[in-house]
Amino acid sequence: MQVRKIKDSDAKSYLKLCETIDEESEFMLFEPGERKLQAQRQIKQIESGLSEVLFVRLTTEA
Question: Which of 8, 42, 58, 59 is in Cβ range 3.0-4.6 Å of 2 for a Cys bridge?
Answer without folding.
Answer: 58
